[in-house]
Amino acid sequence: MEKININGIELAYMRHGKGTPLVLLHGFPLDHHIWDEIVSLLKDTFDLIIPDVRGFGESTTVNIPYTVDDLASDIAGLLDQLNIEKAAIAGHSMGGYIALAFARLYPERVHGLGLVATQALADSQERKEGRYRSADDVAKNGISGIVDAMANKFTSVERLQEFARKSMEVQQPAAYIGGLKAMAERQDSAALLTSMEYPVVIIHGNADALIPVERAHEMKNSITHARLVEVKDAGHIPMLEAVQETANGLKHLA
User: Fold this and answer.
1) What pLDDT is stored for residue 128 in this prediction?
2) Residue 4: its H or E element
3) Contact between 249 and 229 (Cβ < 8 Å)
4) Is 2-122+188-253 in CATH node 3.40.50.1820?
5) Mean pLDDT of 227-253
6) Number of alpha helices (DSSP H) and beta strands (DSSP E) in the chain
7) pLDDT (tens digit, 9 = 90+) per residue, 120-135?
8) What is the rounded distance in angstroms from the CA atom of residue 58 to the CA atom of residue 62?
């Protein structure tokens, strides 16, 4: 992986293909490998930029609290280093929260937006408190509790459950803690949706056990020109459960 220094961290990223720049942002608590199977289907259409979000994979983190806006700033800094003024941004789950923050902070830099198995709403107070309890548990007991609780919720496909588990097990506790707290404090993006004039693609499995597909329909209702790809029988990782269908959806961001 290539690496750059930005905002006090070392940000690692992969780059493939040619065409419209497209940043692919992974979800929590995974890394850039979530996109591996889709690269070959997109590299002839896009200049793919696939980072490890701060703290995950090969990217480093900081020992102070940070926000989803900070994670979006990392991506802006990466694009600056690559001399890319404008890009399509597609985010999965937590990556979708970062993509929405990027769209709010840098609207002039957004060529298009892909929202994959994610939502615009902020956490409820109950959900926020749950994330902080999880962060405290990781600090005290390590990541095994979250791994056990989440791994099988990504999908009903056993081989992909194993992929998710292995991906989660190699992440650092600091990434879990920082990511959980950042997600807990993220801004609500519902009001942002109605102002989007660039292409938007919403991709969501109708069997998603972590973020219900109703969240996708709510976003589609707010973004009248958005393309909604509802993936039948897919869970929370449609880019692995329905690779071709997800790739076809993302191509509308070119």
Assistant:
1) 98
2) strand 2-6
3) yes
4) yes
5) 98
6) 11, 8
7) 999 999 999 999 999 9
8) 14
